[in-house]
Records
---
Amino acid sequence: MRYIRFPLSLRNVEDLLHERGVDVRHETVRFWWHRFGPMFASEIRKRRIEGMKSSRWRWHLDEIFVKINGETHYLWWAVDHEGEVLESFVTKTRDKKSALKFLRKAMRKHGQPEAIVTDRLRSYGAALREIDVGARQETGRWANNRAENSHLPFRRRERAMLRFRRMRSLQKFAAVHASVSNHFNQERSLSRRLLFKASRAAALAERRGLLAA
């Protein structure tokens, strides 16, 4: 969980565990996250989706350029009005077909939002018209800052991991990282210190419950 949550390399986690008297190799840490990370992320995602009716209000969509073995890929990204990452989807292209797959995948899980904020990429408009929600699209120079800012934790992790080598590993890590980030996203800049501490303690207690289950 520390490897997923914090911008640490596998060897960083190995050293931290060594200080605590746990002698494991970094490849063991890699096996742990591949084996258990998706399980924990799935449970976190299931619990949050059940209580996220407000996510249908306003979505912010964007795409991230990611290099895999020197080739550019695109990580499509959807967040709600509170910065919760709703969906991520990796493709080799940035056209209407890819945008349509991404939107249908997100709406299948979360329903249709009342408003969809995007940049001026024409693929979004074509895909939204295809599913008859083109009138809900909003664009603007600064309107999509919510999505832009949500990329930062992922970019920090990408640098720590020295990039990705396969589309499959990128898709898997992006999904797991988004769920864990959502779980600990307390919007500390918008909360009083006491409220932030209480929310953080509740998130840690829920995480310990998931790990013990």
---
Amino acid sequence: MIKKFYISGTVQGVGYRYTISRKFRNLNLCGWIKNLPDGRVEVVTEFDDSRLDEIVEILKYSCYSARVIEIEMMDCFEPLPDNFEIKF
């Protein structure tokens, strides 16, 4: 499944994109992460249904300098790159 996540909180300027991209690359996931003008971070990635809890856990707790307040999730049908990248 391909999902799009919008992460709210203190997630910009704290190494969040780097931390998540490194973790997702280590899991061999494809997709991207990018900052949004409104202060949120957008993540798009593809994974097995059985890994949803693991993915949400990574998004919530992997970056110790970030403070995630809310994660919105929705289905996504965009084509993905072959790896996981940071978009600017």
---
Amino acid sequence: MRHEDSSGNTGDLGPGDVQWMTAARGIIHSEMPQQTEGRMRGFQLWLNLPSAEKMKPAAYQDIPSEKIPVIDMAPGAKAKVIAGSIAAGGKQAVGPIGGQGGLSTDPRYIDFHLEAGAVIDAPVPAGYNAFVYVYDGDALVGQSKQPVPHRAAGLLSDGEGVRIEAGTQGARLLLLAGKPIGEPIVQYGPFVMNTRAEIEQAVADYQAGTLAQG
């Protein structure tokens, strides 16, 4: 996947690589598939920013797969830590995004690979919004073993962790969590702001060609 944006950033994402971009006050970008054969799978996730940070400068970074730590969670279970941190077996893996703090929403982005029947207890800070998305296989989530099938998402209730058990075919799933912002959200197309007036201004800036300037 080739990326280009209005700030002059370019990058080529290979298997397992991650792109982390902060749109903030405005950036225009494109991603174009580059594979020569077969199928490509990827995930695009949007994280909101508090109103006080929405107009900060845009930012971008490519993170190669070899820079993303992987930790053994339990027999037959591994966690790839993209954002935040996770500990298991006396070891800790800190992701390249926000692992040492500094992001106000404290995002957690973990990619779990579980063999058939593997069970993990994944930490989730109390009070955070969180969900799981199963992109391969199926899983049983929580103490009640709520089934989450292939290509389904499950919104988690509040707590300090979640138990995940892989189904008979194993499971690969994402666990996403973040600190709630508690502000109004107004969305239109690719624009996310706090008020309708701010959305109208963003659209006007885009139409005038000034959105990603300054």
